[in-house]
Amino acid sequence: MTSTESDDPDAPKAPRTKRAANNAAPAGPTNDTAGSTGRVTAAQAMRGAAVQLAELLGTSPDSVSALRPTQDGWTADVEVVELVRVPDTMTVMATYRVTLDLRGQLLGYERVRRYARGQLDRER
Q1: Cα separation values, 103 from 26, 77, 87, 94, Å
Q2: Contact of 100 with 43, CB cutoff 8 Å
Q3: How far apart are CA 33 and CA 73, in angstroms?
Q4: What are phi and psi of 110, to 5 degrees?
Q5: In 3D, which of 112, 104, 107, 110 has the Cα closest to residue 47?
Q6: Which residues touch 74 (CB under 8 Å, ≥6 apart)?
Q7: Please, is 76 exposed, middle or buried when counting C-beta atoms within 10 Å of its C-beta (0-12, 13-18, 19+)?
Q8: Which pLDDT belongs to residue 34?
Q9: Is the peptide bond before 12 cis (omega within 30 degrees of 0)?
């Protein structure tokens, strides 16, 4: 009978419902804007910058190397493969500066740097 008491359908339902509600809660902020300012979160801005730039350039971004909040939204630096070469260290990369509004919508972009993948920044 102990097994039927632990299998009681009323006992497990309450904790499962609470867990489901708790699991759903973290997903909310990633889909909503943060706070009353209407500004998307940093994670949303990073994803938005990469996805929207990829749509315009027709290529997948390699990474987002910088993200800065601005008064009007966000600025992100996105690394993109422009020309594949062999060996891979000679692949031509580019850094694009992407400007997003508070809602994460792309306002503009510009290429600010081209370099070989294997190149190190010596001026920093």
Answers
A1: 19, 18, 40, 26
A2: no
A3: 12
A4: -150, 145
A5: 104
A6: 40, 42, 45, 49, 67, 68, 99, 100, 104
A7: buried
A8: 54
A9: no
Per-domain boundaries in the chain: 2-31, 36-116
Please name the fold of domain 36-116.
Answer: Nuclear Transport Factor 2; Chain: A, (3.10.450)
Does this model's pTM top 0.85? no
**For residue 55, what are its two tokens?**
């749509």
Length of the chain in terms of residues written: 124
Task: Going from the first residue of the chain to its last (124 residues), give the mean pLDDT of each consecutive group of 10, the final group possibly shorter.
Answer: 46 36 34 65 97 95 97 97 93 97 97 93 70
Q: Report the C-alpha gap between 107 and 98 in whole angstroms.
A: 8
* Angstrom distance (rounded) from CA 56 to CA 40: 21
β-pairing, 73-83 vs 61-70, is antiparallel
CB 76 within 8 A of CB 63: no
Residue pair 56/105 in contact (Cβ under 8 Å)? The answer is no
